[in-house]
Amino acid sequence: MSAPRIITQLVWVGLTIVGKAFAEAGKQAVRNASAGGASTSSTSFSSASPLTRHHLMTLDEACQILNVRSQIISRGLDKQFRSTAPANAIEEWNVELERMAKNYEMYFATNAPPLEKAAAAVAGKGAKGAKGGQGSFYLQSKVWRARERIEAEVD
Asked: Over the stretch 29-45, which tens digit does the pLDDT of each residue have?
């Protein structure tokens, strides 16, 4: 056999194998789509509480972002617990809510995107007097959403 013929046969066999694999993958994708889409993952909020679905964040995630203890926040949300709990437990819950507000202010200011010199000049503050954070809008948004989530649960 000649070398070009062997190379041609190897390429043809390889393309056949790859073609069959792509065809099978396409069939599997159609089966998955008709069976209800992707499988549920940890980011799927279909079976979660309405607040979690609305805010796209669990209470535990919000507590982690704002650096507060989720056990205390969760326990204080129970109206029956609040009516029968000792005074120190209620005080601990209130302290944790105050801590959340303080952390929110600090994290929100720290994660503010830096101000541009032009924007500062237009605002009348001048470039030297302008204050901006060191963070990004994305991080600032996460801090905002975490506070919203906890406040929605408290209300």
From this structure: 888 888 865 544 445 55
3-state helix vs strand vs coil in the chain, percent to 5: 70, 0, 30
Structural contact between residues 100 and 147, judged by C-beta atoms closer than 8 angstroms:
yes
At residue 118, φ and ψ (nearest 5 deg) are: -65, -40
Q: Quick check: pTM over 0.70?
A: no
Q: What is the DSSP letter of 57?
A: S
Q: Which residues contact 136 (CB under 8 A, 6 or more apart)?
A: 111, 113
Q: Token pair of 67, please?
A: 């650096």
- Backbone torsions φ then ψ of 32, nearest 5 degrees: -65, -40
What pLDDT, in 10s, does the model give residues 80-134? 666 777 778 778 878 888 998 999 999 888 888 777 643 554 455 544 444 566 7
- DSSP one-letter string for 31-72: HHHHTTSSPP-TT--TTS-HHHHHHTS-HHHHHHHTT--HHH
Pair of tokens at residue 17: 């194998």
- pLDDT computed for residue 130 by the predictor: 46
Distance CA 64, CA 148 (A): 14
